[in-house]
Amino acid sequence: MNRIDIILEKEQTNTSKIFIYMLNGRFIAFGYSAYYTALLCPKVIASWSHTDASSSFVCICIPDEYLRLLSQKYPTLADDECIRITPPLNTYRQRDYFREWQEQQLHSTPKIDIE
Length: 115
Fold this sequence. Notes:
alpha+beta; 5 helices; about 40% helix; about 25% strand; globular
């Protein structure tokens, strides 16, 4: 299982955090983390991609200025694996709308290659 597949598996149980990973020189959020990021930073553009082992998934490449904004505004922890941001309660209470948002992104956003 490659790193992205491991991240996607973790995202399936993500209920309240934004996990941001550094991949190929870019800060990227996947799944629910991408959704929560889109709610907090609506100008950030979602994309989709896939791996050999997974079906298509949504992700967001987070520009430095938005990462700085998020980390200044919300509780943030960083380690060797990822950056963890705790969004406000009203953000992750919208979790039920994730599937609808994800389907919309898979059909209306550009594909990117992140591996």
